[in-house]
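Folding Query — how this chain folds
Tokens — whole-number codes for backbone shape
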Amino acid sequence: MLWMWLGFLGLIGALLALDLGVLHRKAHAISLKEALAWSLGWIALSLSFCGLIYFAYEGHWFGLGMAVDGADGVLNDGKSAALKFLTGYLVEKSLSVDNIFVIALLFGSLAIPDRFQHRVLFWGILGAMAFRGVMIAAGAALVDRYQWLLYVFGGFLLFTAARLLLAGKESDEPGKNRVLKFARKWLPFSAELHGQRFIARINGRRLLTPLALALIAVETTDVIFAVDSIPAIFAITTDPFLVFTSNIFALLGLRSLYFALAGMMATFAYLKVSLAAVLALIGGKMLAGHWLEDMIGPKHNLWLLLAVVGILAVGVIASLVARRRVRRAGAINSGGESSTHTAVDSA
């Protein structure tokens, strides 16, 4: 299995080097068209890797799928491994959307120009990958030894779902970020940007630039969101390779997804409701997993995937419908006001 890990890490390293060293070497603002193209490209690459997962686990390459999966107590064949990878990828991707909106608020608060945001996100996500690798390794080892931790994770996800529903918008305000307050108080920062540099020498002193502050904010935000997303994927599978690869592919597409969605925060009014429902579903699956498997049967992973897709689809559709109603009401009000003004002018 070591060779699969080395091969995957080599693939990710090559993709990241191509991304920053060749395709985004020169700082520029990412257009919506470019962001959508990159998003589709990362999704296609993730689905291709899902196909590789199928063949690798079906043939038990390098020992993959030979250990019992603690999430459902079975040996993963190609079909079950591919379903778990896809479900984990979708859950991580959906939870990352809320992360995107928080990052957009942070960039706006720190006045980071559009052309430098990709660089901050690149290094931020690289750090997030390393941090999640540590969390996943520790979590997998703990769950393998203490199965009852899955119930703890399940309860935590239900609590997180409730907190997500009850939390107000003010909880996401960058001005209340304690890490940023601490960094501004104790670390030497320059007031102005110095190109793409995170550290600049000014009057003989090395100072962190606002880009470094933005990087700290992005890393901190991901750590907070990882506390929710890592337990969620352990409800789907405890196979470390599936957990890690699905998380990493979701993170790889986060930058392009950010540039595609950052300007559409107001459009997704029911995003938090959908994400809370997904977390509640996964938390419930953790707490009542064996009972659900007995009731639903061997295709419970497929039904879980379909349920997640359905919840997200309902949230998106409800948000778009609500947005259209608001626009229509605004148009009617504007029309009424115009008619009133016309009547007054005529009088």
Observations:
- The CA atoms of residues 269 and 322 lie 8 Å apart.
- The mean pLDDT is 80.
- Residues 300-346 form the longest helix (47 residues).
